[in-house]
Amino acid sequence: MRNNSEELKSKVKQQFGTNAKKYVDSKSHAYGSDLPIIISWAEPKEYWVVLDIATGGGHVTKQLSPYVKQVFATDITIEMLNEAKKFLDQYVSNVSYIVADAERLPFLDETFDLITCRIAAHHFPNPQNFIGEVSRVLKPGGKFILVDNIVPEDERIDEFINTLELLRDHSHVRCYKEGEWKSWANNAGLGFIKSQIRKKTLDYKPWVQRTTTSVDQVLIVKEHIINADEHIQEYCGIKMNQGEIASFHLDEWMGLFEKNS
């Protein structure tokens, strides 16, 4: 399993290293309606030390940093961190940047008051290890906010969405189910507080162009969507415009947890 995990993580580094700037500029990452909700749920305090795992373009760090003492922004991809720093240096000065694997965090036990991870965990090959590390470095009573795309219990929709993501982005591992996240968190000593699911609408063209590397790959993704049955297309809200895919939506889940004291 380790060798396979390292191979998957290598794909993540390659994918995000090549496309780092696109994730800083991505509208769906930079302006998601979940960002202000993260602040509302976290109720940050000025003395807090925060960890933002797989920070990507740094958008969660940008939201949180004005409210807390310090944010540690981590990512497995150094090019991604460099782009995040260029972006965030315009706005904040209380951020430290550390290259780190979400499944092997380089921090001492019980270090952080709040941990966040947004739109990244579907790239993690060992989500239980990730959740275990979150629990380890979180202070008792500390909060953890996870945001990611999920799949429903319907196995056909699950297979369609995860295949779609993999066809479009070869570093994708899996969109997990809500029940899986809750179970892993519970086993790691993180108590569930609340959650919400929203239909996240994505403009198709920038979404597919962000990670694909050839015209053939784009066509394969399009064919996968066009050939899906009516039930799946309806669930994913496929919108067409003059024969081209205009937009669709995914289920984005937010979960708030608190480490047991």
TrEMBL record:
Cite the GO molecular-function annotations of the record.
methyltransferase activity
Gene3D superfamilies per the UniProt record, alphabetical: Vaccinia Virus protein VP39 (3.40.50.150)
* Domain Methyltransferase type, chain residue ranges per copy: 51-146
Q: Which domain of life is it from?
A: Bacteria
Record flagged with keyword Glycoprotein: no
> Which GO terms are recorded in the biological process aspect for this UniProt protein?
methylation
Keyword tags: Methyltransferase, Transferase
The UniProt entry, under PANTHER family, shows: METHYLTRANSFERASE (PTHR43591)
Could you identify this protein by its name? Class I SAM-dependent methyltransferase
